[in-house]
Design brief:
It contains 3 helices and 5 strands. The protein is of the alpha+beta class. It has a 5-stranded antiparallel beta sheet, with no helix packed on it. Strand 1 and strand 2 form a beta hairpin.
Length: 152
């Protein structure tokens, strides 16, 4: 289960509370040090990284797909099930098609030969508003099928 990242304002508030608590305990730190500590507590390398992640993740959706940048998604790529993170969504002009880029949690072997493998961890595909790519494999299987949240 993914725990949503607090907003940037909440992260800054956490840093202020941390700084005040440390001050009460006799240890003075700068606000920037407190921000760095909060970032590390949330599993990020530094404040710039968590701040950028928050801006991307909390950005308004640029598509009608019901998913946004930073969301975890699932589906099928070349007939293989996947789970990964959506890192880009661009609506293409002239219709209801989108260019998406996904980083898979586990690489997918895109070759069907036993004696050769080629793994992909990151792919970019064009999909329609149903999450299905218009390009298909020889058997009629779409290159990508993104499982989109149902919109009621």
């Amino acid at each position: 289960m993914l725990i949503p990242l607090p907003s940037t304002d909440e992260l800054k508030s956490q840093a202020r509370r941390l700084r005040a608590a440390l001050y009460d305990g006799g240890r003075m730190i700068s606000h920037s040090t407190a921000l760095e500590m909060v970032a590390r507590q949330h599993g990020f390398r530094d404040w710039n990284t968590i701040s950028a992640h928050g801006r991307l993740h909390n950005a308004p959706l640029r598509s009608g797909l019901g998913v946004g940048i930073g969301d975890m998604v699932g589906g099928e790529y070349l007939g293989h099930p996947f789970r990964g993170q959506l890192i880009a969504v661009h609506r293409l002009s002239g219709g209801n098609r989108y260019r998406v880029t996904i980083v898979f949690d586990e690489p997918i072997d895109v070759v069907t030969f036993d004696s050769f493998s080629a793994f992909r961890r990151r792919v970019s595909c064009t999909i329609d508003s149903e999450g299905v790519s218009p390009r298909q494999r020889s058997g009629g299987v779409p290159h990508l099928r993104l499982f989109l949240p149902s919109v009621d």
